[in-house]
Specification:
CATH topology: TIM Barrel
Largest sheet: 8 strands, parallel, barrel
CATH class: Alpha Beta
Strand order of the largest sheet: 1-2-5-6-9-10-11-12
Structural class: alpha/beta
Bound molecules: (5S)-5-amino-3-OXO-hexanoic acid, zinc ion
Number of domains: 1
Radius of gyration: 17 Å
C-alpha cells in the first residue's frame, strides 16, 4: 500500500477559544501548531488564517506571514483554504491563491453546514478551478455530499482539473453526508480511476473514518478544525495528540507514514 499521507487541519474558521482552549488563534500559534504537527507526522497542512484577534481571515498578507513562519522550521505541503468562513464573499475567499501555494482546497458544491449554508455555485467552482490551473496550484477537491462528485467530474470535463485528481471526503458535517463506512465506500467507488483521496471525519467520526481510510489504502485528515475531542468527554490538548495517535495506529497496522516529500510524489506535485 502507498504510504499514509496525514493532513492536519489545525484551526478552521468556525471555532473559537470558547469551544476549546487548545485552539491556535493567532498567526504565531497557527504556525507553531502546524510545525509541531509536521514533526509528529503530518505531511500536509490544511491552512486557515486568523488575525491577531482570533478572527478568521482570508487576507493574503496574514497567510503569507503564517506560511513564512512555518517554512522557518519545516516544509509541509501548504494547502490554503478557499472555503474561508461561512458568509465570506468569493473575492475574499480567493485571496490566498495570490501566494501560489502548492495546494488549495476547492469545495465543489453548496451544502447545508450546521445552521448555515456553505455556498459554492457552479460559476465560483469554475473560477476557482481555472485560477488554480493557471497558477499550477493543486486543488484538493472537498466532497461534503454525494452529488459533489458529479460536480468534480463536470469541472474535469471542462478541462479545469488536471488528473490524477485528489479528493478529500468530508463526512459527518451536520446537514451533509453522514459519516459511515457505507457512505465512504460509496464515495470512493464513485471517484475517477487513479484519483487519490483522504477522508476527514467530523466530530466523533474522525478516528473511525481515519482508520477505515488506512485500511482501504486512502489517506487521512485530522485536526481541531474537524474535531476537538480526543475521546468522548476529553478535549484534545491541541492537534498534535490527534496526529500522533494516527501515526501510532498506522505503525501497528504496518502502514508507513509519508514525509512531505513523499506526499508530494503521491500527489504528483512538481
Ligand atoms: N469553513 C468552512 C465553511 C475549506 O477549507 O475549503 C469551509 C471549509 C472548507 O473549511
Ligand atoms: Zn477548511
Amino acid at each position: 500500500m502507498e504510504k499514509l499521507m496525514i493532513t492536519a487541519a489545525v484551526v478552521g474558521a468556525e471555532l473559537s477559544r470558547d469551544d476549546t482552549p487548545y485552539l491556535p488563534t493567532n498567526p504565531d500559534e497557527i504556525a507553531r501548531e502546524a510545525c509541531d504537527c509536521c514533526e509528529a507526522g503530518a505531511a500536509v497542512i490544511h491552512l486557515h488564517a486568523r488575525d491577531g484577534s482570533g478572527n478568521p481571515t482570508q487576507n493574503a498578507k496574514i497567510y503569507r506571514d503564517i506560511i513564512a513562519k512555518i517554512k522557518e522550521r519545516c516544509n509541509p505541503i501548504i494547502q490554503v483554504s478557499t472555503g474561508g468562513a461561512i458568509g465570506m464573499t468569493a473575492k475574499e475567499r480567493m485571496q490566498p491563491l495570490d501566494l501560489k501555494p502548492e495546494m488549495a482546497s476547492l469545495t465543489v458544491g453548496s451544502v447545508n453546514f450546521g445552521n448555515d449554508v456553505f455556498l459554492n455555485p457552479p460559476e465560483l467552482l469554475a473560477k476557482l478551478a481555472s485560477i488554480m490551473k493557471e497558477r499550477r496550484i493543486k486543488p484538493e477537491i472537498e466532497i461534503f455530499d454525494a452529488g459533489m462528485v458529479a460536480n468534480a467530474l463536470w469541472l474535469n470535463k471542462k478541462g479545469l482539473l488536471i488528473p490524477p485528481i485528489h479528493f478529500d471526503l468530508v463526512l459527518g458535517v451536520p446537514g451533509a453526508l453522514p459519516a459511515s463506512v457505507r457512505n465512504l465506500l460509496f464515495l470512493v467507488d464513485s471517484l475517477p480511476k487513479y484519483s487519490t483521496w483522504s477522508v476527514a471525519g467530523i466530530g466523533r467520526s474522525q478516528l473511525p473514518m481515519a482508520t477505515t481510510a488506512m485500511i482501504l489504502g486512502g489517506h487521512a485528515r485530522v485536526g481541531l478544525e474537524d474535531n476537538i475531542y480526543y475521546r468522548e468527554g476529553q478535549l484534545a490538548e491541541g492537534n498534535v495528540p490527534l496526529v500522533k495517535r494516527l501515526v501510532r495506529i498506522a505503525g501497528e497496522m504496518g502502514r508507513e507514514i509519508a514525509t512531505p516529500d513523499e506526499a508530494r510524489e503521491i500527489l504528483g506535485l512538481g
